[in-house]
């Protein structure tokens, strides 16, 4: 089996760290309650501030992200990586983000992580002939469906910012739910 897992919003808690960094940079007190939209930065900071925030995300930021799955689940995922072709796909496109993502995954216990960086994920799903994709951003899953149709199962991680959106995907609430729905437990 071949599958791809999104980092931010599925495996890594990007949002909490990004909001904390933005608050430090701009002296704001933006709170964190699962934001109402995926690109929530636009709600609180100007485009110039958003650019400053992205540029401030150095190695320490990326390696310091908190995991969204338990230590035991990381061990399960590492075992799956030896049995299946597992890709970690991110839309982060800044500088050395691939290297940082691989180091972060290794720190979580993934022995040989394969990280792919793409602004859209449909062509990757098509080229890799993925069986399923797990993401928190509906537009990425729509893009996968556009290129792969029914051949790739799409799982949407439940968040406040995507709760009202409907599409050709299966909703999941965390990694354990994903594994259960795929019969990998």
In short:
With 185 residues, this protein is α/β, with parallel strands linked by helices.
List the helices and strands and how they pair.
Elements: E1 2-6, E2 12-13, H1 14-26, H2 41-44, H3 47-56, H4 59-63, E3 66-67, H5 71-83, E4 85-90, H6 97-108, E5 115-117, H7 122-128, E6 132-135, H8 138-148, E7 153-157, E8 170-172, H9 175-182
Parallel strand pairs: 1-4, 1-6, 4-5, 6-7, 7-8
Antiparallel strand pairs: 2-3
Helix pairs in contact: 1-3, 7-8
Spatial ordering of strands, largest sheet = 5-4-1-6-7-8
Number of helices: 9
Helical percent range? 40-55%
The coarse silhouette is: globular
Rg over CA atoms: 16 Å
The CATH homologous superfamily of the largest domain: HAD superfamily/HAD-like
> Could you spell the SSE succession in H and E letters?
EEHHHHEHEHEHEHEEH
Based on secondary structure, the structural category is alpha/beta
**Range of strand content:** 15-25%
Q: And the CATH topology of the largest domain? A: Rossmann fold
Indicate the CATH architecture of the largest domain. Answer: 3-Layer(aba) Sandwich
The span between the termini is 14 Å
Question: What would CATH call the class of the largest domain?
Answer: Alpha Beta
**Major sheet description:** 6 strands, parallel
Q: Can you count the beta strands?
A: 8
Number of discrete domains: 2
* Overall pLDDT metric: 92
Query: Low-confidence parts lasting 5 or more residues at pLDDT below 50?
Result: none
